[in-house]
Design goal:
It is built from 3 helices and 2 strands; from the N terminus they run H-H-H-E-E. By secondary structure, the chain is mainly alpha-helical. The termini are far apart. InterPro entries: DUF4491.
Length: about 100
C-alpha cells in the first residue's frame, strides 16, 4: 500500500488548521501589517518547494506557501469580523471603518 497521498492529505489538513489561529493572532497584534509577513513567507517557502528534491518535502512547503497566500485574504476578512464584533479588538490599535477612515 502507498501511504504517501494519505500523509500529504494529513499534512494539508494540519497546516490549514494551524493557520486559522495564526491569522486571528496576526490580525489582533499586527493588523494588516501581517499581510507583508504572509507574502514574504509564502514566496520563500514556494521558492524552497521548487528546489527541494523530495516530493513530500516539496508538497509540505508548497502547501505552507499557499496557506500563507490564502491568509492574506483571511487577515482582511478577520479585520471585518473584528469590526462586526465577532472577535475581540486589540485595545492598543486604532481601527478604521470604510473609506472615510472613521476611527473606532
Amino acid at each position: 500500500m502507498n501511504f504517501t497521498g494519505v500523509f500529504h492529505g494529513i499534512m494539508v489538513f494540519l497546516l490549514i488548521g494551524l493557520f486559522h489561529p495564526i491569522v486571528i493572532k496576526a490580525e489582533y497584534y499586527l493588523g494588516r501589517k501581517s499581510i507583508g509577513l504572509f507574502v514574504v513567507l509564502g514566496i520563500i517557502t514556494l521558492g524552497l518547494a521548487l528546489v527541494v528534491q523530495n516530493i513530500t518535502g516539496s508538497t509540505v512547503l508548497a502547501t505552507f506557501a499557499f496557506c500563507c497566500f490564502w491568509s492574506i485574504k483571511e487577515v482582511i476578512e478577520q479585520e471585518q469580523r473584528v469590526l462586526e464584533g465577532r472577535f475581540p479588538r486589540n485595545p492598543n490599535r486604532v481601527y478604521k471603518i470604510g473609506n472615510n477612515n472613521k476611527v473606532v
